[in-house]
Each structure stands twice: as C-alpha cells, then as structure tokens.
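Hey, I'm writing a tutorial for new members on how sequence and structure tokens pair up, and I'd like a real worked example in the thread rather than a made-up one. If someone can provide the structure for the chain below, I'll link this post from the tutorial.
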Amino acid sequence: MSIWESFKIALSSIWSHKIRAILTMLGIIIGVAAVIIIVAIGQGAKNQMTEELFSTDQNAIDIYYEPLPTEDGSEMYWEEPELTAEDINTLAEVPGVEAVIAINRGWGPMAYNEVQGEMEIMGVGPEYFSARNLQIVEGRAFYAADNEGMNRVVMIDEVAKDKFFGNTENVIGEIVDVNNNPYKVVGVFTSLIPEQYRYSEFGEMLMPRGVISMMFGNREIEQLSVIASNPEKIAETGRLAADTLTQSKNLEDGMYTTYDFTEYEQELNTVITLMTLFIGSIAGISLLVGGIGVMNIMLVSVTERTREIGLRKALGATRGKILLQFLIESVTLTTLGGLLGLGLAAIGTQIVSQLSPITATISPLIVLIGLGFSAFIGIIFGILPANNASKLSPIDALRYE
C-alpha cells in the first residue's frame, strides 16, 4: 500500500466519523490559532513600539558634535564645527539614509493687522518637506532659491492661520510683520507638533534657513538629522552617518555621534520575546491537551478496527505498513486541525487589528512552524496507538468481537 493510498484511507476514516474528528481536532485548532495570534500580536506590538520609540520624526536620528576628552581629563574650550550644504550632500550618500534634515530655530513676534503673537520659528530647506512628509494645505513649499536668495517668505501652520487671519479663505500672498520686517506668506501646512507640545498658542512658522540666520545671527545649520529608511536599523544607520561626517570634516579634537538606541532596542526585544513566550506557552497547553485527545481517539480507533488490522495482516501487511497507516491517519488529523487553526488565527488577527491600535502581523515562518508543530504532535501522540495496532496478532485480531 502506497503512502497516497494510506492518506486516502485516513481521510475516509476521518470523514466517516466527522463529529468525533472535529471534537478531537478542537484542541489542536484552538492551540494553533492561539499560538499564531499571540505571536502575531507580539510581532505587531514590537513593530509599533519600535516605530514609536525609535522612529520619532519618521525614523529621524539627531547627529551632534562631541569633543574628545583631554589627556589629563581637564575641561577645555571647544566650538562645534560649522555645518554646510556640502555636509548635507555627504550624509545623503550614506547607505541606509533616506533623507537629511538641516534646521535652525528662532523666536519672535508676528503681527497682522491688529493681531500680534509670539511665534516659534523654524528655519528649513527644501529637503525638509519631503523628508518629513509635511502636508501643505495651501500654497507651496520653499524652493532652493528661497534659501539661496534670502527671500523674505514664510509658511504658517493652520493654527497660526486661524489665530491671525480668522475666516480668511486664501492667505497666500498676504504680508505679515515678523520682528518688524515684512514677510510674504507662501504656504499653509499642517503642523507635526502635537498640541500639548507646542511652545506658542499662536502656532508654528517656517522660514528659509538662511533668512533665520540673517535675522537672528545664528548658524544656518544648528541641528542635523538623518532619516533612516529602515526603523529596525536606526542605530546602525545613525552611527554610520555620524562616522561619515566625522571623517569628511577631518576632525581631530572631537567627533560626531548619535544617541545610542542599541540598549533600548535590546531591552524592547527581550520584553516582547519574554511576553510572547510566556503567553504562548500557556496557549501551548491547548496543543498538549489536543495531542492527548488525538492519542485517545486513535487508541479507540485501533480497538474499533481490530478485525480490519487482523485481516490486513493475514493478507500480508507487515508491521511497518500497519504502523505507517495509523501514523498517517494521526498526522492527517492534526494537520487538518492545524489548517483550521490557521484560518481561525487569520480571522482573529483581523479582529485584533480592527479593535486595537496594534496591527497583528502573521509571518510565513510562524505559519510553517504552526503547521509543522501540529503534524509533529500527530506523530508523537500517534506512535503509541500505531505501535499497539502493529503488534496485534493476526489470529487474535480476527477472533476479536
């Protein structure tokens, strides 16, 4: 008898006892579904926490200058090297860097007609808008010529528009007074800063970096960040970018570095893994109970089919073939349970994703592990019944009533 014929006989036996088979598979179905759902939730939670903790500002990594300590350990006066547009181009070529953000900041009064208020002002370049995926609701973003030509143009967020312009539909082209200087409004954007973190109730303003530098006398680039294309490699990308900038500027008394996220990433992975293993092990008890149910039902099947076994042996079936027949039946039973459990897990993860902020993620690897484990349970818990069946004496089996 071939394996295919044994498989067809196994399906026929399962089909002839449908209710019993479903009840037997129930533990496997619940166990496989629970394990896959728990691992999917754990993976989804890990992805979300990684995104929130280590991907602030769309995977942005701040790069800052750090002076090297002196030989005697004493403090020394140091000045941070000046950053230029050439440094931005250098960082843009670093593998894993999706974009570079260079900004400076200012703070000053803005007035329009009778309305006045203190504004938080950020100096940016044209690369800022695509890197931050800033949503522009009116007008345009800054051009490279705005920064190079020191054009007196500004962009305001929706909060500032409401505060200063009220119900005015189109504010593009309006002239506002900032630090007693006229500026033209060229765009309105949706602020990325949550309301509770804003410094000013009057909103946020953007200016070309060069204009900020001219107005307040500060450097054109005060803060430099790179956007990592992969949030899971944010620490690696940050270190590579900082090292590249250090080498390109030939620094001797200091170096560029980033905040080290490696320890936090490892702690996060450890917590998520322990939680998944703990809860998954509880769900694994269902698989154990299901396996015991499979063994029990297979022992009953052996008893019911004693005369059939005796007849097969009398016709020349070897012990190995009888053993294989019942193992295939046991594995088929648990694998079907695993497939049904996978379907239940797919529905469960969709429900979890809809009802919670976590997007549960089922990976192909965990699917293969779940199905493989269910088949493995069929082998482990099917060995005893199959072995009992293969040891039956043909004469005693044929006499069995």
